[in-house]
């Protein structure tokens, strides 16, 4: 059998659809698996032992069977959390079953020998912490906003007085509520008068507001770099808050010194891909115009105008020996 690409993600993942379609056009064997299907819709068996020092076995879905030894690359996107599969169980049994599945099935799939991961889930986890992102970017010479992470109201007040206007942003997205409804807390300006002892409850991220002219999303896939300047008609502080269809996208050249830093950034975290967000404070010709905001190591990109080219770049790095054949 020809080497195949294993795509680990949920059925609803539109971004993965683009890559799968591109791989299909290149006649590359692809298998799509959502690990939360474990049960009647996903059976699994793997062995290791004397004479077989690496994991071998198979996955069987409702539509196909995959030999682990045939997997050449894994595109790890956004599978459904294991705990969702066992939501019908009492809490203790639910947590036990989810942990066993994650450590068993996940433990094997995350350690397939000689397989290229885009990106490896452990690398994504390490690169997903904003404090790590900001420190790595700063050490690579990228401009970063003055930043304070704290649960101390006095420290927040002093920071606001020194660097105001100051914005607040979350570390993670807002979890779903008990009814399954999702929400969002957008980046917002801070009124110093609202800073009080309630900050002690948890940790907050404060940054000096960047006097930006626009935002830039840079998608790096292997050696490929795609950049779109994003302008919001209403000049929103957080462009994600409004109507995405009203956003204006313009291709922009990324200075070579910035590109080099982004490749070094990905290498440092063991990533093959990342979605970088920058605030642009000038025309973009010099490094000083580019202020690093964050990098999503498993970000969305299907909404961008150059999604077709990005999908081709993913196919390139998932099948390096075949390229665009």
Description:
The chain is an alpha+beta fold and 325 residues long. It has three domains: 4-119, Rossmann fold; 146-208, 2-Layer Sandwich (Dna Ligase, domain 1); 211-297, D-amino Acid Aminotransferase, Chain A, domain 1. The chain is 27% helix and 27% strand. The protein has helices at residues 14-25, 82-85, 91-109, 121-127, 130-139, 153-163, 256-269, 307-318; strands at 4-8, 30-33, 42-49, 52-61, 65-67, 71-76, 116-118, 147-150, 166-169, 188-189, 204-208, 214-221, 224-231, 248-251, 273-280, 290-296. A five-stranded antiparallel β-sheet has the order 14-13-12-15-16. Strands 2-1-6-7 form a four-stranded parallel β-sheet, with helices on one face. Strand 12 (214-221) and strand 13 (224-231) form a beta hairpin. Helix 1 (14-25) crosses helix 8. The relative contact order is 0.14. The model has no long low-confidence stretch (mean pLDDT 92).
Please outline the major beta sheet: 5 strands, antiparallel
Please write the string of helix (H) and strand (E) elements: EHEEEEEHHEHHEHEEEEEEHEEH
Helix content: 25-40%
Uncertain runs with pLDDT below 50, 5 residues or more? Answer: none
Number of domains: 3
CATH topology of the largest domain: Rossmann fold
> What is the highest CATH level, the class of the largest domain?
Alpha Beta
Distance separating the two termini? 18 Å
In round numbers, the mean pLDDT is: 92
Please state how the strands of the largest beta sheet are arranged side by side: 14-13-12-15-16
Provide the β-strand percentage band: 25-35%
The total count of strands amounts to: 16
Please tell me what the overall shape is.
globular
